[in-house]
What we know:
By secondary structure, this protein is mostly helical. It is built from one helix and no strands. It has one helix spanning 2-78. The longest helix is centred in the middle third of the chain and has 77 residues, at 2-78.
Amino acid sequence: MELLVSQAEEIEHLQNRVLELEDQLNDRNILIAKAGSIAEASLEINKIFEVAQKTADQYLENIHRLAEQQNKNEKNYVE
């Protein structure tokens, strides 16, 4: 009889341990999913910054080109 009680207690202990481990696994899975989401968001933000940088570069290039054209026009006007 004692053996059955002991085994029942051991089974209960092991079942509780399984539940604890399942909770830990679920928590890790959530963390991994969040990390994946953060990584994906970072990639999207990087794409936005790349587009913004290209746009800024084009803007500066146009400003320089317009300034050069303006200088040429002024030189031609003075002559």
